[in-house]
Design a protein that fits this description.
Blueprint lengths: L2 E2 L2 E9 L3 H11 L10 E9 L16 E2 L2 H5 L6 E4 L6 H16 L3 E4 L2 H18 L3 E2 L10 H8 L5 E7 L2 H13 L3 H10 L8 H4 L2 H15 L9 E2 L7 H9 L3 E11 L3 E12 L11 E8 L17 E6 L3 H17 L18 E2 L6 E11 L4 H11 L4 E5 L5 H10 L9 E12 H12 L4 E10 L3
Helix pairs in contact: 1-11, 3-4, 4-9, 6-7, 12-14
The structure holds NADP nicotinamide-adenine-dinucleotide phosphate.
């Protein structure tokens, strides 16, 4: 890395010129140019995009753009490769992974915001980084601008992690916050999120929990040294949540609904899931609205079970901030770039995590235990609630409470409409049963039996209730 008037020059090759890639260019070419901190001058030597002429900075920097990724990766002056590509199809991740591996082979370090490629091919990528002695940095992959990865790997280096959990998907949080705030339907809240730029035209990766799953995979690698494959984690999205769930949550449970990513250890097994969760109004996470992210970390030594008696408290560390957006994500990417450059280009191994690998094993989904919220919509006739409670009883699941609200005609009409239920809205009966501690396997089995009953109009919607 050359020095320019006492400022070390760091030369980047940039893969991607979408929202994030362009924000990186704004930082390097725009008004903030040269204001990256006293000791470093960031420079971009090549940018890969398939459509250079459509890009904002093409007019002023045409020679920097290329439609060949290899020209970026192989560029002799590029010290660090910044990968900010986004996939539409799974097989594209394979190509992106190969770009990263090529960079290592060429002796370069990589900084990425691409959580999908790391969640899918992380093991192969980290192995290659070790083999070639190059570093991979990925602060921008989780929590956008929130410095969670570095905090976990560096600040908590001597901590024994107990749990990490929180709101990691701004789109889901925006949609759920709007449903709570204004009583909007899921579809209306999603439409608004799309209009305001908080949700993609195709929002599936966010609303089905895939994006949160990828982030949780990375958080568990970093915090617990456990690399889970995609598909192993119990994953539920927000698409089944209805306005009526917020009514029950609020009026009966004094709670709201948040989409959370959770990894909880009992010392050996790690219970991981991504799901809507009923969160009490007085929990800090209940107050996080809009596209903001908030991630809790709890360790055993600083206040947990291994803490000194006098210091034993229920300490949690909380990281809050913008979970997405070009600006915050570019700041996180360039923070990693600066960190690598200051350490002389990253000759050491990649920071993979706090723990030695294989310290933990994932708990099977069916064994994950908790208290649960189950919302039913049935035909309104006598004996149904009793029949459902009996089925839970036979499955050795204890009922905690039965919640029933008297609904307005309008609420029932909206509910019937959203499920396309024919007949008079007055003939449908929504209600909620909350369950005492049970396993996911027990609940699935009981609901399989209940789902076959002729009175069930809609598959029951169920998810965990937060318990500290
Ligand atoms: N946006 C955020 O707030 C945010 C936050 C954290 C992390 N991330 C992650 O950062 C990455 C970039 O996000 P973004 O918001 O900038 O996405 P984006 O606006 O959709 O841009 C995606 C970039 O990837 C390129 N690309 C897409 N498919 C490609 C393919 N098949 N082959 C080659 N290039 C392809 C696009 O190329 P063209 O230029 O040719 O169209 C574009 O430059 C993603 O992995 C995303 O998950 C985003």
């Amino acid at each position: 890395m050359a020095k320019v008037r006492n400022r070390r020059r760091v030369k980047l090759g940039l893969l991607g010129s979408g929202t994030v890639g362009e924000a990186v260019q704004d930082f390097v070419f725009g008004e903030l140019k040269g204001k990256s901190g006293a000791d470093l001058a960031l420079e971009i030597v090549k940018i890969y995009t398939r459509q250079p002429k459509q890009k904002k900075w093409y007019a002023t920097h045409p020679s920097l753009f290329t439609t060949r990724a290899e020209e970026v990766i192989d560029h002799p002056e590029a010290d660090i490769i910044v990968e900010a590509l986004g996939f539409q199809r799974q097989r594209q991740l394979h190509t992106f992974k190969n770009y990263i591996l090529r960079a290592f082979k060429k002796g370069k370090c990589v900084v990425t915001s691409d959580k999908a490629v790391l969640a899918r091919f992380g093991k192969e990528i980290w192995t290659a980084a070790e083999k070639y002695g190059r570093e991979l940095r990925f602060e921008a992959c989780v929590g956008g601008g929130i410095p969670i990865i570095r905090s976990l790997t560096e600040s908590f280096a001597t901590e024994e992690p107990e749990s990490i959990y929180g709101i990691v998907n701004g789109t889901c949080n925006y949609v759920l916050s709007e449903m709570k705030r204004s009583g909007k339907s899921y579809q209306a809240a999603l439409r608004e999120a799309q209009e305001r730029g908080y949700a993609e035209t195709n929002p599936k990766a966010d609303t089905t929990g895939l994006d949160a799953e990828a982030k949780l995979i990375l958080l568990t690698v970093v915090a617990f040294g456990l690399h889970m494959e995609s598909g192993v984690i119990w994953r539920e999205g927000i698409e089944e949540i209805q306005a009526i769930d917020f009514l029950y949550a609020d009026r009966k449970g004094r709670c709201t609904i948040k989409h959370l990513a959770v990894a909880n250890s009992d010392g050996a097994a790690l219970a991981c899931f991504v799901s809507p969760v009923l969160v009490p109004h007085d929990h800090f996470l209940a107050t996080i609205d809009g596209p903001t992210n908030a991630i809790f970390f709890k360790g055993k030594r600083s206040g947990g079970e291994e803490a000194d008696e006098r210091e034993k408290r229920d300490w949690n560390y909380v990281f809050v901030g913008p979970g997405a957006g070009g600006g915050p994500t570019a700041v996180a990417l360039l923070g990693d770039v600066c960190e690598l450059a200051r350490r002389g280009g990253g000759r050491g191994p990649s920071p993979r995590g706090l723990r030695a690998r294989d310290h933990f094993s994932p708990q099977s989904v069916d064994q994950i235990a908790g208290c649960f919220y189950v919302r039913f919509i049935v035909k309104d006739r006598p004996g149904i609630v009793g029949d459902i409670c009996q089925t839970f009883g036979k499955a050795r699941i204890n009922i905690s409470e039965i919640w029933q609200l008297s609904h307005s005609e309008e609420e029932l009409r909206e509910l019937a409409k959203s499920y396309r239920l024919a007949g008079k809205p007055g003939r449908i009966l929504p209600f909620v049963i909350t369950l005492e501690r049970a396993t996911v396997g027990q609940i699935k089995n009981a609901l399989k039996i209940i789902g076959r009953k002729d009175y069930v109009l809609v598959d029951p919607v169920w998810f965990p209730i937060w318990r500290n």
